[in-house]
Amino acid sequence: MNGARTYLEHDWYAGGIPANVVVGKDAYIETSYGFARLFSECQPGLILGNACGAYHRTTFVVGPKGRIAVGAYTCLNDTYLVCNDSITIGEHCLVAWGVVLTDTWIEPDAPIAVRRAVLQAAASDSYRRLPPISTPRPITIDDNVWVGFEAVVLPGVTLGRGCVVGCKTVVAEDVPPYAVVVGNPARIIRFLEPDDTDAVRDRALRECGRD
Fold first, then answer.
1. Contact, 106 vs 82, CB < 8 A?
2. Distance (Å, rounded) from C-alpha 17 to C-alpha 143?
3. Fewer CB in a 10 Å sphere around the end CB: N or C, the chain?
4. Cα separation, 138 vs 115, whole angstroms
5. In a domain, 15, yes or no
6. Looking at residue 210, what is its pLDDT?
7. Domain holding 180: CATH number?
8. Residue ranges for the chain with pLDDT beneath 50
């Protein structure tokens, strides 16, 4: 520790991890550079669960009222998270490189005057923070979800347990549990067998215990 921030021994970036970030046991953070745009005033503003990982250029762009929670054993690999309200990611998830999760969006019909006011506000901010141009809507990702590379998950979306989001898919609506979705806009192409239920897990543990 140094002051209010945590500094990683292996880090090339000197900014450190903000004090309102909670890091679980055995979690891995490749560099604190990903927290350079974390301006959350919440306590905590970000939770990284046990044994989860924030790899490569994973970036947390979090406004003053934003909160992000990442579950245990979840892997964020070069993921970009934009949060002005709430992003919650469950356990055992894999979020691939280039994925964008954003709870805030610029509506296509936003008036020019509103867009101009937002840009002027960012220009006058010492950190060049862009205020929300629309009302943020929380994103929720349940356990055991796989999001393929360069997919985009838009505000208000819930990804159900065990679902798979294909590469470069744009998700604007909720995805049911165990669905596989692809395309822009996302469409369901199949459903997976729910092989990660509590009953299946308990059976597997019992079988392993007999060996």
1. no
2. 26
3. C
4. 22
5. no
6. 61
7. 2.160.10.10
8. 1-3
